[in-house]
Amino acid sequence: MSVLRVCEVGPRDGLQNQTRHFSVDERIELIDRLTGTAPAAVEAVSFVNDRRVPRMAGAEEILDRIARPSGVDIAALVLNGRGVTRALECELDEIRFAVSATDSFNLRNVNAPVSATVDDFRASARAIRDRDIRLTAIIAVAFGCPFSGVVAADAVIELAGELAAAGAEEILLADTIGCGVPSQVSVLLAGVAQVAPGIPLGVHLHNTRNTGYANAVAAVSAGATTLDSSVGGLGGCPFAPNATGNIATEDLCFMLRNMGIETGVRLPALLDVVGWLGKIVPDEITGQLARAGLFPEVAGE
């Protein structure tokens, strides 16, 4: 059975656009429940401007208080060097640095062109180099941009090569607005593998247009070793307000399990977390496994 790394992004991407505000205590409880299901990693917080993204305030306190079970990496998202500086003052296993594939999106996100953010990434990689922290580069809007439209595959591949040369230890392609299709996934991952040889690749998928799980299968077939997902399918896209969000961790892991791909995630325990969340935000649970149940059930799972 092959093994794939699942990074649970519910505490960050799942909550940052929620109408309901989750307190620091509630976010800690969610993270602790999720680490108890044994994913490879949990993206617990983001180091962003608290005024711009109030749902993500309190990152340092959260990292100071959460449980840290063996075998589960704790990750944080950053958008610039200021975020890296904050992150390096905390206990982390992974820093995930997002760089947009288009200037238009990057300007909206961090008020800087892509070239400036790549320079920021390069400097951050030097700062992280001697620390026991994995540096992952995430290329946002890799499959399409709400402001610039279609994003050329060559532009994404070229950016991935720059980030690899700058010190990325892993590269993830993000379908930020959920517009990608499997053929794009295959082409992009193949191209990035050429310019970033030996660097692990992955994808961050949204199910906005119901292509997320097909894209996940395409990514695995193309050699991706990390898949991002969110418990219950929590999340959304501020540029498509009526759309659903990330692919659901439980649905993804069920599919992978039945494909013979090991994730390490304890599915019954994860379904318990979905049930707990469903009592808090019942209208936000878009995953299907909690409704339908496991099949077949596996003894001792």
UniProtKB/TrEMBL annotation:
Signal peptide range in chain numbering: none
UniProt record, GO biological process: ketone body biosynthetic process; L-leucine catabolic process
GO molecular function: hydroxymethylglutaryl-CoA lyase activity; metal ion binding
Species whose genome carries this gene: Antrihabitans stalagmiti
Superkingdom: Bacteria
Keywords per UniProt: Lyase, Metal-binding
Entries under PROSITE patterns matching the protein: PYR_CT
Family, per entry: Belongs to the HMG-CoA lyase family.
Record InterPro entries: Aldolase_TIM, HMGL, PYR_CT
Location of the Pyruvate carboxyltransferase domain: 4-271
Protein known as: Hydroxymethylglutaryl-CoA lyase
